[in-house]
Amino acid sequence: MIHDFIYDIPVRVYFGCDHLKHLGAELKKYGTRVLLTYGGGSIKRIGLYDRVVDEIRKAGLELFELSGIEPNPRIESVRRGAQMCKDHKIDVLLAVGGGSTIDATKFMAAGACVDFDPWDFLDVTKQAPVKRALPIVSILTLSATGSEMDTGGVISNPETQDKLGRLDPALLPKASFLDPTNTFTVSPYQTACGSADIMSHLIEVYFNMDQDLYMLDCFMEGMMKTVIRYAPVAMKEPDNYEARANLMWTSSWAINGFVNAGKRQAWSCHPMEHELSAIYDITHGLGLAILTPRWMEYCLDESTVSKYVQFGTNVFGVNPSLEPMEIAKKAISCMSDFFFNKLELKRTLPEAGIDRTHFAVMAKKSVGGGTLPGFKPLNQQDVENIYEMCMK
Ligand code: NZQ
Ligand code: ZN
Predict the structure, then answer these.
(1) How many A from CA of 127 to the centre of ligand 1?
(2) What does the pLDDT read at residue 360?
């Protein structure tokens, strides 16, 4: 069925390479004390840090900084940031980086408004309400997660070996600067992982047996074709503006709430992948690329084949006159070819440094002790079987 929905994505997007001059005015709307957050230093190497600091100074704002946010950002960084916001009476946070920096900044902004540990927002046993967060502005440097335009964030806790996500409208950035030239320096590997992540965000929503809004399926097919077309170009020609711009805008729209409006949420590969990154700290998109074709294979049967036929023919151009099962198998092999040949990502868990040691515990956590209500409901044993399929 087509569920009722409210469409509300109030993020002001500055898309293109000549908008940084608006940064000062955008930040000033929220006050004068700015906490600039970033990761391991890529923004300094690409010259963006200097340009951002220059704009902040020109606007007469007071600058505070927090650096060192890890890929797969850790709760300790969030705690540090929340404390800084309180200590320095920060008015607005400016996240400059990829999804990890933006995600961590979202929970710093929420953590600044409460007296308890920000992990309580994520801890499944607590799920503390996110009633308020300080305003966030983001400058995106890696096309992947869509954090620049969505309500979510994912944080790792190495002590408990958890990696948990949370959605809340209060976490939405007020404005995001999307300049494709800021992604010219993203390595071919991170470009591939980011593209696999975008692809997965679409697949998680598209593979759904509910009767859906057909127009949204068409949008998603277009976005998947965009990733398939431009990711390999961006890997080979890092400063190809057209390729970077297409990936950037697709990353935002794949997960900003538009394509899943009216649909039952049915994500499967993300919960399975977050367990891999939680324990092995692997890149999110790599884990998704390894899992997705196996999950597709596992869920294929007479009751689901029609979705694979739609996907195979519309996205990969598989011959529609073939038998449905043959089309489905060809679609899965096109998906594998894209991830492992075109994007040159590792094909198996052992190649990514993962063995069977934690399969049972990861599977149990990913289904939350029950069933993962995805495209096809998966229990702990199903997830273990899918991990096992990724061994070779
Ligand atoms: O830390 P720095 O030095 O900035 O380097 C980063 C990092 O090493 C580097 N990088 C970023 N921009 C660059 C660059 N290197 C050169 N040039 C640039 N312009 O790339 C590395 C990876 O960065 P990261 O931010 O970790 O990548 P990504 O954007 O893929 O974010 C991944 C995180 O987001 C979560 C993932 O689970 C993972 O923790 N997700 C967030 C979601 C959301 N908010 O909705 C949804 C996703 O499904 C995902 O779970
Ligand atoms: Zn993702």
Answers:
(1) 24
(2) 97
